[in-house]
Specification:
mainly alpha
């Protein structure tokens, strides 16, 4: 059952990503895409039901980033920080955090976010993995 859940999760993430990409490049695709939002809501419900796991919270941050729900990312990152500050060193979290602050034009918050990461004992553990 676990393998089936992982496979279903991967397929839902692919559906969300593909729908998002298509809607960005196609004027017809800018209309609400029911399948994309159904996949998004399914994953969001799954991730919110197990929000005590740092790995699940990181997956939720990634999902929000894929659908450009930047306004929700800072509060989810704060939840992750309260659980375990070491998880903030994950490249996906750093990238999503910066993208969200910049998309929201919160430049000072982006700077503080970077300073927080730089002053943490985890700085330098994995910045080479960031592919921007």
């Amino acid at each position: 059952i676990s393998k089936l859940n992982e496979n279903a999760e991967r397929k839902l993430l692919k559906a969300v990503s593909l729908s998002t990409i298509l809607s960005r490049h196609d004027s017809v695709g800018k209309r609400p895409n029911k399948q994309k939002w159904n996949a998004f809501r399914t994953l969001e419900t799954r991730y919110k039901s197990d929000e005590h796991s740092p790995e699940v919270i990181k997956k939720y941050i990634d999902l929000l980033s894929r659908v450009s729900r930047y306004e929700k990312i800072p509060e989810v990152i704060e939840r992750l920080r309260n659980m375990c500050e070491g998880d903030l060193a994950d490249p996906r979290v750093i990238k999503s955090g910066l993208e969200s602050y910049l998309a929201l034009k919160q430049y000072e918050a982006a700077y503080v976010f970077l300073l927080t990461y730089e002053t943490s004992p985890h700085f330098g553990e994995c910045p080479a993995q960031l592919n921007w």
